[in-house]
Amino acid sequence: MTPLAHRDARTLFERAWSHGIRTGLITAQRREALLVEGTRAIRKIADILGTEHLRGDLERALRSMLGLMNIHLERVSGGDVEQAARSLVENGLLFHTRGASRAIKRVLASVDQRDPDALDPEAQRHYETIVVTEWPGRSLAYLLARERGAREELALRQAAQALVRGLGGPSGLNESEPVPVIMTALLVHAYQPRPTWPRDVRSFEALLAAVRKSPARLGRFPQGILPAHREVVEPVWTANAALVRANVVDSLLPLHVLAAGGPDVNPLHGHLELPDDALEEVDGHAVATTTHWEKLTRGTSDEARLVLILLQGVVGIADKPPFSLKAVAGLLKTALREKPANRLFQDWLTANVPHRLQPDMTELWEAFWEEREALSSEDPASDDFKHFARTWFPMRAPRSAEK
């Protein structure tokens, strides 16, 4: 034996069991009862794993039971072998496997934002499978860390919900990640005289404009936050204020990209809660717009004028509407002879069009070029040409010479 203390590599359960047998804490009668109880636990776990009649499942179930038991045994005994042995005698084996299973399922349910005390049978089975397959090899320290994380996440979600309610925001944000929601709410408190949740792209863009105009406010925690939530949300502000400054104040990106650009170009995704209408598709074009897009389109939803705006931006057409048939014919022979490279269109789209409207604009662009390429005649006098021109361009009122 070296002067260094010998390290017992056995699990806490193994050491407690040996201690209990050696000292007489676990009597022969109690030992038999515990073995019967352990057999029941193994068969129950094996049934979750597959079947209680296959040797492989029983062996896996044994390892699972011992792993779960060690987690809870350490929790109730603090790692003390004597106390662990007494807990085995007084409480049995199932007490410890169930204790670990309940604690783990609460963590899993909390992560999924479900009430652990009101799980349906399907959810119970789902979590039980995770418990017996993924957790037996983990430690009590890991479980405690996950429990702390779940408590912190719950506190963040509750604070986010309270802030959004106070600002008159939508209840649907309950499903969002809490940190971006909290940071957005804090910016509203910091920059709006009458704080109101930014429900659309235009109001969110105005919020970002205020941040860019007065960056000094990012240096201090905003006023008006309820004390009950300040302890939870102030670290969010501290951790994210510099990031907001870098991406909004110090960035060269236009505000309309920061307000409504897609995740591939907008660094605010995942850091602030962008309005729903910045991301999803819509049928109209007046709902989800930025100041920049409103200026480009002047609020129009007319497809011919929208196509012209796309052509002006991507191809560089300088001609002003309304057009004559002769003018359209000239464009088809020059600027619109061939479809431009897709990269040019995508770059312009990303830089100018709100993300939510981009699918509609892409569909419109492709439809125009599909009909352009299928055009059978470029003679302004032909019916096919007239139909194409009047469908896709803002036209002058027809004169007798063009009829």
General description of the model:
By secondary structure, the protein is mostly helical. 62% of the residues lie in helices and 0% in strands. The longest helix has 27 residues.
List the helices and strands and how they pair.
Blueprint: H1 12-23, H2 28-49, H3 55-77, H4 81-91, H5 94-111, H6 121-134, H7 140-166, H8 178-191, H9 201-213, H10 227-249, H11 255-260, H12 291-297, H13 303-314, H14 325-333, H15 342-352, H16 358-374, H17 383-392
Helix pairs in contact: 1-4, 2-3, 3-4, 3-5, 5-6, 5-7, 7-8, 8-10, 13-16
Overall pLDDT metric: 89
First-to-last CA distance: 110 Å
**Overall 3D shape:** elongated
Quaternary structure state of the chains depicted: single chain
**How are helices and strands ordered from N to C?**
HHHHHHHHHHHHHHHHH
Structural class: mainly alpha
Q: Which bin fits the share of residues in helices?
A: 55-70%
Q: How big a fraction of the residues is strand?
A: under 5%
Low-confidence stretches: 1-5, 277-287
Q: Would you count the extended β strands for me?
A: 0
Using only C-alpha atoms, the radius of gyration works out to 33 Å
Tally of alpha and pi helices: 17
Major beta-sheet overview: none
Question: Could you write a compact summary of the structure shown?
Answer:
The chain is 62% helix and 0% strand.
Features:
single chain, 403 residues, mainly alpha, elongated, disordered N terminus
